[in-house]
Amino acid sequence: MKETIYLKAWLAQDRDKWPYAYLEKAYATGRAGCLSELEKSGLVGRGGAGYSTAKKWHMVDGKDQVVLICNGDEGEPGTFKDRYILENNPAMLLEGILIAAYMLSAHEVYIYIRGEYSKALKQMKTAIDEADVVINRFRIMTGVNLSVQIVKGQGAYVCGDETSLINSIEGQRPNSRMKPPYPTESGLRGLPTVVNNVETLCNIPRIISEGGQAFAALGVEGSRGTKLVCLSGKIAKPGVYEIELGKVTLRELIWDIGGGIANGRDFKFVIPGGISTPLLIEEDLDTPIDYRSMREAGSSIGSGAVIVADDTVSVVETACSVGDFYMKETCGICFPCREGNRQIEHLLKRIKEGRGETGYLELICDISQTTSLAARCGLGQSAGNFIESAIFKFEGEFDSYIQKSKKSGGELE
């Protein structure tokens, strides 16, 4: 295993006793100084969008009654990095949250955790209880009677969208909201609201501890620091790994770190960022894992869910499963997403069952692109990414299913 893979590893640490020393340094540095270090760091959101954290936080500068939400819902299939942090080092996350609350002058904090993560919920509650002295000192140092609450999610994938998540916390159905206004202008109960991913917030103590420039020294331009990735699928050593952005390729991740394809099978494709990202094939494996390189390869880091498929995996059946997932997980509030994903699933199912028709693949891609352009949140905008890429790169496999349908006399109902 290469030394650079764990260079200054931070997020993959387990600690029995977290010192909360970085919060004291934040107080000494001051809000303006901390924000300056955040800007120098080049940190971008680790939930999938990759938006500048400093830019987002500056959007609430000078606003009253700011709300900070930590998103630990982690609904993307194949993603379990936030669960690792919540279960193994919740105090690191809590300190990141408290430093962020200090920098944002936040008055309320909500930690939204996936309902199925029973251990994570318990560990986070324990960390908050054990940090009672730290939180009280925060109140004294800032003059803010900070409220820190845990919210148990109810299993809605659409809560990956900030506005759906906010609706869920308010006790409403988790439908997406029209934007603008954006949450930083009008979020929870109409208050300016900042939503950040678990992994994003866990980088804040590190930035305050080592300085923004030290953080930016890791990684490459536009992709600074380290990143947790979740290896799963047909891989010899699945798990959570911390890599330096831009310094490890997909090939190195799969073979040098993950031990290669399980049971000696042949590689077929990899989904590099969860099922909302396009798949990549053998010729793409030398792509470095950073935001720019992944975009140039035609995909995305996404949430960091790296799912590996071997030669036993049917890309048609996988696409059908993805289509079924999005059809069921759409909140249904906007017509393009609701109906688009329903029609895509219907067509893919017919192909899988040997009832496909010539023209189905083109129609699926047309519907997918229309849905992406017209949907109002990230679910609908990215639902077709994997499916379109699967059709483009494995068209022959889809065609073979359709040709079988013709031979068996498949007809439209």
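(the above was protein one; protein two follows)
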Amino acid sequence: MAEDHPVALIAGVSGIAGRGIARHLLSLGWTVTGLSRQAPLPSIDGLRHLPVDLRDAEAVTRALAEAGRGVSHLFYCGRAPDPDPQVEADRNLGMLANVVTALQAAGAPLGHVHLVHGGKWYGSHLGPYRTPAEEDDPRPSVANFYYDQQDWIAERAARSGFTWTATRPHVLTGFSLGYPHNIASVLAVHGTLCRLASRPMTFPGHPGCFESVSQLTDVRLLVQAVHWCATTPAAANDAFNVINSDYFRWRDVWPDIAAVFDLEAGPVETASLVHRFATADGTWRRLAAQKGLLEPDIARVASGAYGDTTLSVWWDDMCSNAKIRRLGFDPVFTSRESLLNALVRYRENRVVP
């Protein structure tokens, strides 16, 4: 492996994590190829993109037969959700296996594989869990593709001689377009619709979510952590929580969020964002035409379903940062800063007016 000229392959490059990792590595002088069914939007200068469905083993093998020969680092961010956790686990393990197997068949000098996972490792999506969650906490007794992927890559790495790491962010926050599963884009659309209706910016989630302790991961923090994991020998063959430096309550940051839209902060008013965004489709298209917005399809800007799920969590969400900090990774991002920065970027990029 040529350490002075690292060559990265990013599986799932069109998502918020994959896109951020690509931009960060390119800024550091890496050669980067990305796999996804659709190219990331906006386009990324310097990225070689290969359109491929990671579920199709033959297509992945064909795509990487030449492009995979020089890959020294794989950053795996791909995922294919399914309502059945076991189907989801089997499918996502297969996708990872397809990529690694194809790289090895191409003769890639693979030295490191990094997996981007998340707080669902701890059952954060199922109900109250032990907080602050630590990386070695017992696994909940449910199917979860994170478990299958980490176990598989650890065994494959031991046999093949490469190292692996995994990061576990929680509620990624930053700018993204074409990947609507982002709490910042949900808030950007919700705030814009409240302003159009000349009403206060109400909190559309569960009352308990408004009051409970929450956490975020700034995508800028995640990409730094991913690079650190992949290039720090002391981090090899381990997994790390990557969370902003603070915890927060939505009630405390809501006035600042509303102020971005020049609105009064309203009370909790639980409502279906799926319904609200769907019924606003025509309104959004007219707004986009009038204001010259980048994306006229509201569904490509923000997912109401993701917003409803994220803002329905009434229990505390807390993961420990101690493990990664003890090894020397310690950039500081605060949750208020992350949210406000992302919302401003949606406006600067003409996604919202």
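Reviewer note on protein two: The radius of gyration is 20 Å.
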